[in-house]
Amino acid sequence: MTDGGAAEAQVVEAVRAGDVLTIKLRFKPLATNQLERIYDSISQDAYENSFYVLAGNKKYLLLTDSSDKPLTNPNLVIKANKDSLIAGSWHGRFPAPPKDVTEVSLTIPGVETLDAIKLTDR
Fold this sequence. Notes:
The protein is mainly β.
């Protein structure tokens, strides 16, 4: 659930392809006509402490592009309306954990930690 209670995060997919893990979420609306700002930007502190995958006891931060920008949505605002199927979506790319890891937890700001995310290999 989001901090403001407007929506619930659901994992669409968690795919490990080579050395990259891509996680996609969608937000199911729980409120009517509510706009919720999950995060506005990604500071260095937020990058290091608020966006990560936990696999066993190892923390994996978002991958970055050649300009050191994290490979995720630069900001996240959702619009909840119970008449809609989706209030918003999110995606992120992380270093892939070893092949023997079959599930992970995901932490992003403004959303409850998502545990026991099953990984699919491609």
